[in-house]
Design goal:
The complex is a heterodimer of chains A (about 450) and B (about 300). Helix content of chain A is about 50%, strand content about 15%. By secondary structure, chain A is an alpha/beta fold. In chain A, helix 2 packs across helix 3, helix 11 packs across helix 12 and helix 20 runs antiparallel to helix 22. Chain B is flat and about 90 Å long. The chains are: A alpha/beta (about 450), B mainly alpha (about 300).
Chain lengths: ~450, ~300
């Protein structure tokens, strides 16, 4: 019997079997790869949104710490609007006002067509954010894989609810002159080295300092990576089981107490702008922040530019971790011109436009797609490299659990930061057990709430 | 005759309208209607909606199902202590600041009621804390309490009242709570003072003259004339101020946002943290309404005192 007939009878060749079995095995072993491939392949059939002439689009954003970058973003948006007959308005509020404005719009079911989403807001306001899977797939087709942190925040139960926009990398900015004066040649690469450096810098009267208060950015970007670096976590990957009460958390807190007792200065009263001001006022020798301190020194103040450098996050026993400020754009369900809004966001994410913006942002922003990772701005100044280096080890609050309403609640209640702050009170002599117990109770209240 | 003919010729609807205008009670209600509508839309509806929200599992942007007192039970039985800290702090914050605002406002009003040069200018200047946009003034206070740039500490250190670097105003729980109260007293005292001043200006001077003729001292005039005559104003101001201070949000939010580690947490901020950034709007509503029964008693008490015959 000819080969072809055999195949026709059974409908199943050895090659078919091997191919099918291979795909099935790979699906079971690496489901994320298959999911990722699936979303990319769908980009081929993506419908490109078209702007409607005469439409009006309002976009709500924060006021960034680099004003020229805001101006460039507005310029691009208005230029796109003029070219397509669309009236574009960019509204800006301070970072801490963005969420109240967003919440008011969500509750009212009316407001800007596009809202800049910070951290896990797509999880909080899922039903108000339109499905933008099509647009993200178009971008994936053009720019490659999205940053995992942006993806974690934007994707809610498999559906993209926001378009990845940017990463604001957080790294250490420090004074090389004070470090040299204290006999510290390079910025520490481990948390233990940081303790030793802080002890030496104490003598200069210009300590390494950071907030452990209720700063929506700096407090979270500092204390979550410390916790993760020692193996601690708020909750297990299931997003349900609270896991803060562990030996690893105690190790992280003991490190923090040791660092403070040695000379690392924490400020529970500092909000996000305060460490910037202290650095520019020559009060401290180092702090963790976005690139804005360095950028403003470089382009505005010119006082300590030559003696300022930047360094990535130190490592803990369990590795190097970072937490960066993440922004994405959501098209809101009440928008009468949602397709125009989608089209505008795609234009703003065009590689040429995007890199014009990141160039003017001078290293304050990093791109959230593969093709944007090697942005020339980071090569233009070796001191900016640290900000590029902290993107890859970036995680999100609540990691290793995926972002959710619960992780967002734990984040906005500053549970991790408060746990550290309690143990660091009175010169780093606070009660570690009481601090962990309080954090555990607060986390259980959130994660065990129906 | 002619009049009778004209009356009988008037249409029925016109006669009814005339009757309504002639009767005092229906006309009164008619005139009240616009005010009731405004109050209903802007006060009653949000209030009732807030109560309803607190009894549901609603989230921001999603109206939920009725769950009874579940949100209230959740907070009262939550053992993390933040809610109870917020309750205690709210009472302390309201109680202590009210005592200071009342006393300082009264002293200020008594002083401003005297004749002195630039009196009008000083009276106008008194309103400055009210004229400056709230957030701006709180940001200024934040700067004044900042450990790095504190003008308050600079003053205290340079006058040798405290040793360098001075107190950490917003970084230590006790100091941070005191700082919140200082700012609230600064902002609230002019309200008391202006209200008391207005009350003092309508007290007939004859009473004081008669008292002086009878040989009353200044203190006796104050306790027997000024205070009794000020009583209605005092109670109304006290009532309004207590309610507003219980619900104060802007100042504490800008100055500490509950830090350090929730030691300055107030019910208003705690409700906000759950309701807005946390998205649990129903729980936020329950937290903000938790003291409603108590406040109702306070209001009822004050209203009772106001109605008491002299």
């Amino acid at each position: 019997m000819p080969q072809g007939n055999k195949r026709a009878e059974s409908g199943w060749s050895r090659r078919d079997f091997l191919k099918t079995a291979g795909v099935a095995a790979a699906t079971l072993a690496f489901p994320e790869i298959i999911i990722s491939c699936g979303s990319q392949s769908s980009s081929t059939s993506a419908a490109i949104p078209k702007p409607r002439k005469g439409a009006s689009i309002r976009l709500l954003q924060w006021t960034s710490f680099v004003k020229p970058a805001d101006a460039e973003f507005t310029r691009q948006a208005l230029e796109w609007g003029a070219a397509n007959g669309v009236t574009v308005a960019i509204e800006r509020v301070t970072g801490d006002q963005l969420q109240p404005k967003t919440a008011a719009a969500v509750e009212a079911g009316a407001g800007p067509d596009i809202i800049q989403m910070q951290y896990g807001w797509p999880q909080l306001y899922t039903d108000s954010c339109l499905d933008v899977t099509n647009e993200v797939n178009i971008l994936i087709g053009k720019l490659g894989k999205p940053d995992p942190v942006n993806e974690a925040f934007c994707k809610v139960k498999g559906t993209w609810r926001a378009i990845p926009y940017t990463v604001v990398p957080n790294a250490w900015t420090y004074r090389t002159d004070y470090f040299q004066q204290a006999g510290v040649s390079n910025f520490p690469t481990t948390w233990d080295e940081l303790t030793a450096a802080a002890a030496k810098l104490k003598g200069t009267g210009k300590p390494i300092s950071q907030t452990d208060g209720h700063a929506y950015g700096d407090s979270l970007t500092m204390w979550n990576p410390v916790l993760w670096g020692f193996g601690g976590k708020e909750v297990n990957a299931d997003g349900k089981t609270v896991a803060i009460n562990s030996k690893e958390t105690r190790d992280a807190m003991k490190w923090a107490q040791g660092a403070v007792q040695a000379g690392f200065v924490v400020h529970p009263e500092w909000l996000d702008p305060d460490n910037n001001q202290a650095y520019h006022a020559n009060r401290i020798s180092g702090t963790l922040n976005g690139a804005s301190i360095y950028i403003r020194e470089k382009i505005e103040f010119h006082k300590y530019t030559d003696v300022t450098n930047n360094a990535p996050m130190p490592s803990g026993p369990k590795g190097t971790f970072a937490m960066n400020l993440i922004f994405n754009h959501a098209v809101m369900k009440w928008s009468p011109d949602a397709e125009t809004a989608r089209a505008m966001l795609l234009a703003l994410m065009d590689q040429t436009n995007y890199q014009k913006w990141t160039t003017i942002a001078s290293g304050y922003n990093a791109g959230p797609f593969e093709a944007l990772h090697n942005d020339p701005i980071f090569a233009s100044d070796p001191k900016l490299k640290a900000f590029q280096d902290v993107v890859a080890p970036g995680k999100w609050p609540g990691w290793p659990a995926l972002p959710s309403k619960k992780t967002a609640q734990a984040q906005t209640q500053f549970i991790v930061a408060d746990m550290f702050a309690k143990s660091l009170a009175n010169g780093g002599t606070g009660d570690i057990e009481a601090a962990i117990s309080a954090a555990e109770t607060s986390l259980k209240a959130i994660f065990e709430r129906p | 005759m002619g009049t009778a003919v004209r009356t009988s010729a008037a249409p029925a609807w016109h006669r009814r309208r005339v009757r309504i205008y002639d009767r005092e009670a229906p006309l009164g209600y008619l005139l009240l209607l616009p005010t009731l509508l405004v109050l209903g839309i802007f006060l009653l509806y949000p209030f009732l909606f807030g109560i309803w929200l607190s009894l549901t599992d609603s989230e921001l942007g999603n109206l939920g199902a009725f769950i009874g007192l579940g949100n209230y039970r959740f907070e009262w039985t939550n053992t993390d202590g933040v809610f109870y800290t917020a309750v205690v702090n709210t009472f302390l914050y309201t109680g202590i600041t009210t005592v200071f605002k009342l006393s300082l406002g009264l002293v200020m009003a008594l002083l401003l009621n005297q004749a002195f040069p630039f009196r009008r200018f000083v009276r106008a200047a008194l309103l400055l804390p009210y004229i400056i946009p709230t957030v701006l003034s709180y940001e200024a206070w934040r700067w004044m309490f900042d450990p790095t740039f504190s003008v308050v500490n600079w003053l205290l250190v340079n006058t040798h009242l405290v040793a360098y670097p001075g107190p950490n105003w917003l970084g230590v729980p006790f100091n941070a709570m005191a700082a919140l109260m200082i700012v609230n007293v600064w902002r609230g005292t002019p309200f008391y003072a202006i209200a008391f001043l207005a009350g003092m200006q309508v007290i007939p001077l004859d009473l004081y003259e008669a008292a002086r003729v009878d040989g009353a001292t200044r203190w006796q005039q104050f306790t027997n004339i000024t205070m009794p005559m000020l009583r209605p104003v005092l109670l109304v101001v006290l009532l309004l101020s207590t309610i507003l201070t219980f619900a104060d949000f802007q100042g504490p939010f800008v100055l500490t946002n509950g830090a350090p580690y929730n030691s300055t947490q107030l019910l208003s901020i705690w409700a906000y943290q759950w309701g807005i950034p946390g998205g649990a709007i129903s729980l936020g509503a329950a937290i903000s309404l938790v003291l409603f029964p108590l406040l109702t008693f306070v209001v009822a008490g004050v209203l009772f005192l106001l109605r008491r015959p002299e």
